[in-house]
Specification:
heterodimer; A: alpha/beta; five-stranded parallel β-sheet; B: alpha+beta; two-stranded antiparallel ribbon; 4 helices; 12% strand
């Protein structure tokens, strides 16, 4: 049998997951990874802990060069310009043309750019990749004040990173609460309260009109540097950093130009195959069917990306793997508070601070389930359950994470909770009821 | 809580530490590496989370540092019964 050539575009969790799965199924095949990320493969979610100083930069890299070499992955740092589907080739910006038998698109998502006046000034930052994290740290060494615009997990990662670097943070919220389309009012208030305790100044119902440049002078900020933010109400807030986290956009341009079927992402079947029989897609760009949301959704979640990459890789190498979407889950820290988000959790609130999807996010979470809400605890330890007809449809566990895994399993496995439904809806001792139930059914 | 129950709790804890392994839940892991960074004897715990295998390294002290430090609840102790009791 001839040696097959596999080309993978993208070197994140989906791309590496794909490459590993191909190698596991095809020891002889040629695997070429093409990516425009000079740093290579690192933990994107880990950047939050790099910003706070909990880990050094070198800790972000899960695999060593030796491991890549051992797996015989060829690595090319370049940008792919286009896909020639008829001749099964891709064209790179360095002039190289690569043939492929099978192609995996795992290009990920990139941050949505701000269209504010002054968004190109030195000191305007985002948190998309390792270079952005380095830039934030570099600016934070000299800066005293920062304005953070946006929402979701990324905005708080930046806020916490800056706070830990002793920068005074002003956090703008366009509405009256944080992440309103995923968290309920109490959860938003818990997070906001903790931010305020950390010294963050939250500006509610506030939107930026423009980012202001320096006026020059001997000791002043330079005209190409950030000097402040002008709000729509005409207030000027002086600062040296403006951080923007208003969501991410799946990088589907290559797929669109190649006329693959796309919606908000690249549409894939249960084997992660696109509308072209030789091209697969996985990770942030893949829009796959979700049985919990009952529609094809986007997820910007690391473990999902890796799982999808593995399924795609196995199938590229001749396997028959099926991607069974697990209930979307993320464990994150919101203002220092560990928070697990599972399944469908929306209570129908709005979020004006971001557009579309954000990092560490699933569209499924924003599905409003046909459920009764059960909640317990109104301090830092809080559980909110979305109680369906016979099963749990989603949950948010804040603070104490003892029941996070059991609840995840109950939602994932669609365990019949009819026998405890009344007690859960009653809400007097949600933790105790779940705890007892779990010890019986586990 | 009686004196006996305190003793039993302590005994259970010790049994888990002695007979247990650190077991990862890969669905929660984002490979940040905090676990490996804090391991006092430099076991690459993250690698176990990547491959989904328990930390079956005979050098593991079961000190719990990685379990406690993981910000995402990936790691837990699981008692492995080698011999039937």
């Amino acid at each position: 049998m001839n040696q097959k050539t596999y080309v993978i575009v993208g070197t994140g969790a989906a791309g590496i997951g794909g490459a590993e799965a191909i190698r596991a199924h095809d020891p002889r095949g040629k695997i070429i990874l093409v990516g425009d990320e000079p740093a290579g493969f690192y933990s994107r979610p880990g950047l939050a802990y790099y910003l706070t100083g909990e880990i050094p930069e070198e800790q972000l890299f899960p695999l060593s060069q030796a491991e890549f070499k051992q797996a015989r992955f060829d690595w090319i740092t370049a940008t792919v310009l286009r896909i020639d589907r008829d001749n099964r080739k891709i064209v790179l910006d360095n002039g190289v043309v690569l043939d492929y038998d099978c192609l995996l698109l795992a290009t990920g998502a990139s941050s949505r750019k701000s269209d504010l006046q002054g968004a190109d000034l030195d000191g305007v930052v985002e948190l998309d990749n390792i270079e952005d994290a380095r830039r934030i740290l570099q600016h934070s060494r000299k800066a005293k004040r920062a304005v953070v615009l946006g929402g979701g997990i990324t905005a708080l990662e930046i806020v916490e990173g800056l706070v830990s670097r002793k920068v005074q943070v002003h956090y703008f919220l366009r509405g009256d609460r944080y992440w309103g389309n995923v968290l309920d009012e109490t959860e938003s208030k818990i997070v906001e309260h903790r931010l305020i305790e950390e010294g963050v100044r939250i500006h509610y119902n506030t939107d930026a009109e423009a980012i202001l440049p320096g006026k020059g002078g001997l000791f002043g900020r330079k005209p190409d540097q950030v000097a402040g933010v002008l709000t729509k109400d005409g207030v000027e807030i002086p600062c040296e950093i403006v951080a923007v986290a208003i969501g991410v956009v799946p990088r589907i341009e290559l797929a669109r130009d190649a006329r693959l079927e796309i919606d908000r992402g690249v549409l894939v079947d249960e084997g992660m195959l696109t509308s072209d029989p030789h091209i697969y897609a996985a990770g942030d760009i893949a829009q796959a069917y979700d049985s919990f949301a009952k529609r094809a959704v986007l997820d910007v979640l690391w473990p999902v990306a890796r799982d999808q990459g593995r399924v795609a890789g196995a199938n590229m190498a001749g396997g028959e793997a099926v991607y069974t979407k697990e209930v979307p889950l993320n464990v994150t820290r919101l203002a220092g508070l560990t928070t697990t988000i599972i399944g469908t959790v929306s209570t129908g609130g709005r979020d004006d601070d971001t557009k579309g999807i954000v990092r560490g996010d699933s569209e499924t979470w924003r599905t409003i389930p046909d459920a009764l809400v059960s909640q317990s605890g109104f301090d830092v330890n809080r559980i909110r359950l979305m109680v369906g007809e016979k099963t749990l449809l989603g949950a948010i566990v804040m603070g104490d994470q003892t029941l996070s895994s059991p609840i995840h399993r109950l939602v994932q496995d669609q365990v019949d909770i009819s026998s405890i439904k009344d007690q859960l809806v009653d809400g007097t001792d949600v933790s105790g009821v779940i705890s007892d139930f779990w010890s019986k059914v586990r | 809580m009686t004196f006996k129950s305190i003793f039993q709790k302590d005994q259970t804890k010790r049994s888990v530490l002695v007979e247990g392994l650190v077991v990862p839940d890969p669905a929660r892991c984002v490979q940040c590496g905090i676990c490996s960074f804090h391991c006092p004897i430099e076991i690459d715990v993250r690698r176990h989370a990547w491959t989904g295998t328990p930390v079956n390294d005979s050098h593991c002290l079961t000190c719990g540092e990685c379990v406690a430090r993981c910000p995402r609840g990936v790691l837990r102790f699981e008692r492995i019964d080698i011999f039937e009791k």
